[in-house]
UniProtKB/TrEMBL annotation:
This is Oxidoreductase. InterPro entries: NAD(P)-bd_dom (IPR016040), NAD(P)-bd_dom_sf (IPR036291), Polyketide_Oxido-like (IPR051606). GO terms for molecular function: biliverdin reductase [NAD(P)H] activity; riboflavin reductase (NADPH) activity. Residues 9-189 form the NAD(P)-binding domain.
Length: 212
């Protein structure tokens, strides 16, 4: 049966790229969940539905989760932990298990060397907030994958490698298009369950991202 995927934060930059890849490379149907939903149009009205909602609102999430097989959360913001808690609560109550959650590099202090120090200093409290949100996801019973991208670029390329939670992070950058591709594959193939993966472009080691 055709899978239905709920995309939370569907106006986000990676989410827009993932939407395109889902439509082009799979036969999945999509529910696009976002605030101020008049900002977007469906690309394929036969396969997509737009839902106005806030990711911190459990009631709205529960309604949106009806008939859904997997959730891809592309969220941000100072209340990211509250959003994580709401997503877990709503998924538990509706009985949806699969979640791909976009986080960031550095939440476990896993980025080595000078780049790790620079990343900690530059990202500061953002890292603490994203770690507490990832903790909520990892403490759940869901079939989650936490994705930790390197510093994001808008390069038109798919070029990436993956590190696991217990390994040092590699590289400094990765394209949003690569992350979108990883998300589609994670949901298509149901891989990396109950794992937190780092994703970077190979050969981009350095003390800072190249543009800094
Ligand atoms: N920039 C980097 O180098 C970097 C590196 C690693 C990880 N990341 C993280 O990766 C994630 C995805 O990146 P991106 O470029 O796709 O980010 P983005 O374009 O900022 O997308 C994040 C989306 O989250 C949505 N959102 C925030 N709070 C929400 C809420 N309460 N309810 C519903 N939607 C909400 C925002 O919606 P609105 O439009 O309604 O505000 C926005 O569309 C972000 O969390 C980012 O911090 C970034």
């Amino acid at each position: 049966m055709t899978k239905k995927v709920l995309i939370l934060g569907a106006h986000g930059q990676i989410a827009r790229l993932a939407e395109k890849e889902f439509l082009a490379k799979t036969d999945f149907n999509l529910k696009l969940y976002l605030r101020n939903s008049s900002r977007i149009r469906t690309e394929d009205a036969t396969r997509e539905e737009i839902i106005d909602g806030d990711a911190a609102n459990v009631d709205q999430l529960e309604k949106a989760l009806q008939g859904v097989d997997a959730v891809y959360a592309n969220l941000a913001g100072n209340n990211i932990k509250e959003q994580a808690s709401a997503v877990v609560k709503a998924m538990d109550s509706v009985g949806v298990k699969r979640l791909v959650w976009i986080s960031t590099l550095g939440i476990y202090d896993e980025v080595p060397g000078k780049f790790g120090e620079w990343n900690n200093t530059t990202l500061g409290n953002y890292l603490t907030r994203y770690r507490s949100a990832a903790d909520v996801i990892e403490d759940s019973d869901l079939d989650y994958t936490v994705v930790r991208p390197a510093w994001l670029t808008n390069k038109d390329e798919i070029d990436f490698e993956v590190t696991q939670k217990e390994e040092p992070f590699k590289g400094t950058e990765v394209s949003r298009k690569s992350i979108a591709h990883v998300v589609v594959e994670l949901i298509q193939n149901n891989t990396e369950l109950k794992r937190s993966i780092g994703v970077n472009k190979p050969g981009t080691d350095g003390d800072k991202p190249a543009w800094y």
